[in-house]
Amino acid sequence: MKLAELKGFAPDQGIKILENQELKEYTTFRVGGPADLFAEPKDPEELRDLLVLCRQNSLPYYILGHGSNILFTDKGYRGMIIFLGENFGYIEKMGNDLRVGAGALLKDVTDFALERELEGIVFACGIPGSLGGAIYMNAGAYGGEMKEVVHQVKVMDRNGSIKYYTGEEMEFGYRTSRIQDTGEIILEATLRLRPGKIMEMKERTADLTQKREEKQPLDMASAGSTFKRPEGYFAGKLIMDAGLSGYACGDAAVSTKHCGFVINKGSATFADIMALVEHIQRTVEEKFGVKMQPEIRIVGER
Ligand SMILES: Cc1cc2nc3c(=O)[nH]c(=O)nc-3n(C[C@H](O)[C@H](O)[C@H](O)COP(=O)(O)OP(=O)(O)OC[C@H]3O[C@@H](n4cnc5c(N)ncnc54)[C@H](O)[C@@H]3O)c2cc1C
């Protein structure tokens, strides 16, 4: 749908909606065609107005955070991409809790907590996502996961109503949360931390950063671990043992540094990445009888 066809939208309302934004610019995989419509709301009220517009026009929408776990198709998205970025990027300290907007980057949250000597979220220091995406995915690393620190989450449902969930009500599991079923939009969360020892936290941050730099292809475009960890196995090891290190389809390749990462060597297309993902799934299943499920979210018109 074109902007001019959008019923109920007046450009002088103040809401900025863009047309044909290339989604590859908004993802760490650097893949993805145009979104028909693209909006970055400035606050929850504007977000609600966008949801009303989508409903009035029977227009699908999709929430985008930092784009570090999404593979968009080359044809892009037919509907509206709603990007929660800097406008939702606030971080505030309240005692030992942090009130954090969905658009805040985990790196900024972990730096903020470190500076205030608050312990509990160091594990997330190298995860390149937003708070909203991390809660949606229950992101985790090095023995920690969001589940452990999320005390309360404020969401907006499709009708624009605000709700609050406790950490328990979020039904966190391995790389899942209830939001994956409800389609609600995470606006902000309260993270419950505890006083920590600054030197220990600094050391652990440096240690985890070094581990990532040594083991992960951080200089290449990717969406992190392409597959979920199959129970009882490590995805990267299965892929390596299947002889697929460095295996490529076009410009999409299995990283030789960490076989769990599919990387974009420059101009990989959606088709290249999917051909590689399917080849990995087939080969690993044939060799080891293990089914690999993608961790990355695949979105857009096929
Ligand atoms: C180099 C690299 C390393 C990584 N390492 C890790 C790791 O160690 N551990 C790990 O768990 N992940 C890792 N990831 C994956 C990724 O960073 C995480 O999944 C991250 O939490 C995704 O956040 P995002 O803001 O980028 O989400 P996006 O990719 O923008 O979105 C992911 C999903 O969340 C939804 N979403 C985003 N924001 C909201 C919101 N406000 N409300 C509702 N839904 C929302 C989107 O619709 C989408 O379905 C890595 C990725 C890269 C590129």
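^ flavin-adenine dinucleotide complex. The mean pLDDT is 97. The domain at 216-299 is CATH 3.90.78.10 (Uridine Diphospho-n-acetylenolpyruvylglucosamine Reductase; domain 1).
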